[in-house]
Amino acid sequence: MKNAKVISIINQKGGVGKTTTAVNYGIGLARRGKKVLLIDADSQGSLTVSLGEQDLTNLDLTLASLMYGVIMNRPLDPHSAILHHREGVDFIPSNFELSGVSTALTSLSNREFILKSIVDSLRGEYDYILIDCLPSLGLVAINSLVAADGVIIPCHPAYLSTKGLNILLRTIAKTRRSLNPQLVIDGILLTCVDIHTKNAKEIMQALRDDLGTSVRIFDTVIPRSVKVAECSNQGKSIYRHNPSGRVAAAYEDLIDEVLSYGI
């Protein structure tokens, strides 16, 4: 029986490449023969749209449905919400209904463990479960950290993007201490990088100098490219949309690097 590695892809700042990383890292693993489940834990449904489900209002079952089922003590079979993408990954979709889950969680004594109960029921069927988190550090995001074994943090090499890292790192450390002792930071991934600009190079070096001794910062960086946005609009991975491009090559390098660490 499999025992999935569960990775939350998280940053409370929006627009840093969380969904792009979840989609392309997940599909990249599937291309290497791994069984992969992606979970959309963002009420905006960006992962769901990126995997080709354009009409978010007509989804039969979503992550919110599963979480509400656990909250109401009427759990649903998680398999009933799983969809399949033509590039070889399964996924649990999300839409605006997830925004109400945080309110429903507030009064529960075990509110941080709702998503974990769903994820744990699926661990035996996958090699990897990747959770694409919303740009927040609220209760749904904490649920994602409690459900995970590891964390990948996408981050732009920009001052305002890196400034918020300390808040996120403190939240992860607090979650590890009080709720999930096994949680580790797999690494920080620099995304949307214009490697030719002096500013990007300086910020990347400063980040490695400040955090590199305590947190892994992946050697692989994901370059800036308009092809990434085109992928999301077409429900494709970068491997299908622009297989010979720099971004596809970078995600392949990332997978090689992460697997070399045994993650």
Report on this model:
This protein is an alpha/beta fold and 263 residues long. It contains twelve helices and eight strands. It has helices spanning 18-31, 46-50, 63-71, 101-105, 114-120, 139-147, 159-163, 165-178, 198-211, 227-234, 238-241, 246-260, and strands at residues 5-9, 36-41, 83-84, 90-92, 128-133, 150-155, 184-193, 217-223. Helix 9 links the parallel strand 7 and strand 8 (217-223). The model has no long low-confidence stretch (mean pLDDT 92).
Concise account of the structure shown:
With 263 residues, the protein is an alpha/beta fold. It is built from twelve helices and eight strands.
What string, H for helix and E for strand, traces the elements in order?
Answer: EHEHHEEHHEHEHHEHEHHH
- Provide the helix percentage: 40-55%
Physical arrangement of strands within the biggest beta sheet: 3-4-2-5-1-6-7-8
Alpha carbon gap, first and last residue: 18 Å
Radius of gyration: 17 Å
